[in-house]
Amino acid sequence: MCRIFLIISLLCFCFLHVDAQSFPNYIAHGGGALGRLTYSNSKEAILQSIERGYTFIEVDIDTTSDGFLVASHDWASFHINAGHPELGDSIFSLESFKATSIYGEYTPITIDEIVEILEEYPSVFLVTDKISDVALLDRSLSGMRDRVYVEAFSIEDFIALRDAGYHPMYSHRIVDLASVIIENLLNGEARIDFIVDSTSDSFKELERIKCLMPFKVAMFTSNSLEFFDEHLGKEIDLIYTDYYNPATGGIEY
After folding, report:
1. Which pLDDT does position 218 carry in this prediction?
2. Helices within 124-202 (DSSP H only)
3. Rg of the chain over CA atoms, in angstroms?
4. Interhelix angle for 2-15 vs 203-212, to 10°?
5. What is the per-residue burial (b if ≥16 Cβ within 10 Å, else e) of 223-251?
6. pLDDT tens-digit profile of 180-221?
7. With contact defined as beta carbons under 8 Å apart, do 196 and 169 qualify?
8. Would you say 219 and 196 are in contact if contact means Cβ atoms under 8 Å apart?
C-alpha cells in the first residue's frame, strides 16, 4: 500500500505540469453547424469548419447495406435529417445514400471522400466515435491512421487502435476510469493517455484522476465561451462544439 501511495504521489508531482503541446483546441461536432443546423455530417459542414480554422473535425461513421463507410450518426437520424423519418432505421445502399440530400440542401459524404479532403488539408485531423474496430476503419483510413482519433469503448479496442497506429480516446462512459488507471499504473500494459468525457460529469473527478496519470481530455459538448474560458487548458484539452468559429473567436449561428 505504501508503495502504491508513493507512486501516486510522485506521479501527481511530476505530471501536473505536462506540456499540452498544440492543445487546447476545438472539435467541429458532427462536421460543425451550418447556421443553426447541427450534426449534418455533410460535405459542406466539413469544408466550412476547415475554412473557419478547425484542426479537428468529428464525423460519425456508419456502414451502408453494401459495406461502405459513410458519414452518419445512425440510419434513423440520417433519415430524419433527410426529411424521411418514416424510413426508420432502414439501411441504405451506397447509391441510395449518395442520392439523398441532408436538410434538403447538403451533401452526404463517404469516408473515402473525407480522406480526399484530408489529403488536401494535411493539418486537419479526423475524430470519430461510433466504430472502433480496426479492420473496419482500415477499409478507408489505413493510409492516414496517424491523423485519426477514435473513441474506444473497451481496453481491448484501445490497445488494438493504439497498436495499429490510430489515436485512441478511451470512453469514460463505459467503466469506472479511476480503477482502470490504477490498474494501468501497476502493470503499465495499456496506459491510457487520452479519454473522452461529458460536460455533465464531475470536474473534481477529472482532477483526481489526472493526478494519478497524465492524459488529455476531449469533452462534449459546449457552445459557451464562459465554459471554454473556465475549463479549456485546465481539466479539458479539446472541446466538441457546434457553433464556435475559431476564425473570429465567437459563437456564430
Report:
1. 93
2. 134-141, 155-164, 177-187
3. 19
4. 110
5. beeeebeebbeebbbbbbbbbbbeeeeee
6. 667 767 766 667 788 898 887 667 777 777 777 778 899 999
7. yes
8. yes
192-221 burial, b at 16+ Cβ within 10 Å, e below that, comes to bbbbbbeeeeebeebeebbebbbbbbbbbe
134-174 per-position pLDDT tens digit: 999 999 999 999 999 999 988 889 989 999 999 999 887 65
* For the chain, counts of helices (H) and of strands (E): 10, 12
C-alpha cell at 238: 479539446
* SS3 assignment, position 113: helix
Taking alpha carbons only, the member of 48, 188, 193, 62 closest to residue 106 is: 48
Cell numbers for 55: 484542426
Q: Nearest-CA neighbor of 33 among 249, 240, 248, 247?
A: 240
- Residue with cell string 480516446: 169
Global confidence as pTM:
0.88
